[in-house]
Specification:
Blueprint (H helix, E strand, L loop, with lengths): L1 H20 L21 H23 L4 H12 L8 E3 L12 H9 L17 E9 L4 E11 L6 E12 L5 E9 L7
Parallel strand pairs: 1-5
Antiparallel strand pairs: 2-3, 3-4, 4-5
Helix pairs in contact: 2-3, 3-4
Length: 193
Amino acid sequence: MIKKILTVALLVFGTAAMATFSGCQSTGSVKHSSPGSQAPITKTEVMAAQRAWGDGIVDISRVYKEGGDYEARALAHIKSMYAYGDTIVLFKPTLASEDQFRGDIDGALSYFIGREGTEDTGFAIKGWTNVRFESEGIYSGSDLAMAMGNYFFTDPADNSEIKVEYSFGYVRGADGKLKIMLQHSSVPYGSWK
């Protein structure tokens, strides 16, 4: 137990140190509730946040396919799921190599819906029909939660699943809901076509 606590403490300190020493404009300070002012984050809340994130990606694809305002839907998803404005957000999308990190809403939006003249082709508008999570583990019980595992995106072309590895970090936003403050996604070595 002590090893887990030290690991999380080092991760949190490391995150703040990275923001401070990497030239990031954010101070790395967290503006969410102070420790002890709200109930600790639970594993059930993390799993609900994972479902909501996946459902949001599927819904962005649906709105795009139907010719609706997918940009507004994607922006609503980002604002409801990510901690932009509450704390630093460390977001490393799966299919990003030129602009690897998305530290603001505009960068996240570009990744999700695409932007001409960039590497972004619109991850959330690829037509995904389902997203499911298989967590290797979830750390919870404080004002920070972490989850790591695989998530699977169902491709509408042939109903196959594409496996992607993930790490997510969650904090409570100013509204009391879980928000993503860390997301790192990658494809398993040698598996992406």
